[in-house]
Amino acid sequence: MIRRPLLALPTSLTLLLGLALPAEAQPRDASCEVGRVTGPVRDCEPWEPQPRGPAAWQQPSTRVVPMAWREPLPAHRLHDAHRRAREASSPAARLAVVDEVAREWRVTVDQVVTLVGALPTSAERLAALVRLHPATTDAGAFHRTYGLLAPDDRDALHVRITRIVDADTARRQVHVRRLLEEERRLQPCD
Asked: What is the number of alpha carbons within 13 Å of residue 100 lying toward its C-beta?
């Protein structure tokens, strides 16, 4: 690894001066946004302050956490999601809360029932159950959620969450599992 002194790295005087000034003291044109990193004026887009405070914290998150890294949904987060789903005025806002939970946490069937029970219509509940199914840790007990739906929607839920596997695919999966098991047995143990 080659080490360079910090001063030998390519930097510009505007970058160094921009970092030395506090944000309030940096020059700002009324009609254009000034670039913080490089210093020059960018494409004259109007500058608008970003929302801060409790209203910004209530915005749904768009990050997606891989399943292996997800933690179980804590009780206070479940309570907060349930409250936000009940208070939301539109179906899109309610489903945004469900999407946020489905992208970030692992949930149990009891938590799914609690959260989906806050939704008013069977169609919204169906959409929420489909979105939450992949994040459910005890998906074998997911049949308990069927009581939240109208009879027609129960069949739709069953079709949407059941993986369809034809006989040829099933045969290949069994063959691959058998080969993997054989490989594990043949590998030397340390």
From this structure: 19
- At residue 69, the pLDDT reads 84
Q: Which tens digits make up the pLDDT trace of 140-190?
A: 888 899 999 999 899 898 888 887 767 888 888 899 999 988 888 887 766
The predicted pLDDT at position 54 comes to 56
Nearest to 111 by CA among 89, 133, 91: 133
Tell me how far apart the alpha carbons of residues 111 and 106 are, in angstroms, rounded to a whole number: 10
Contacts of 139 (CB under 8 A, 6+ apart): 109, 133
The strand pairing partners of 60, in sequence order, are none
Beta strands in 54-166 (DSSP E): 71-72, 105-106
Give the global pTM. Answer: 0.56
SS3 content of the chain, % helix, strand, coil (to 5): 60, 5, 35
CA distance 51 to 57: 9
- Single-letter amino acid code for the residue at 31: S
As to burial, measured by CB atoms within 10 angstroms (0-12 exposed, 13-18 middle, 19+ buried), residue 126 is buried
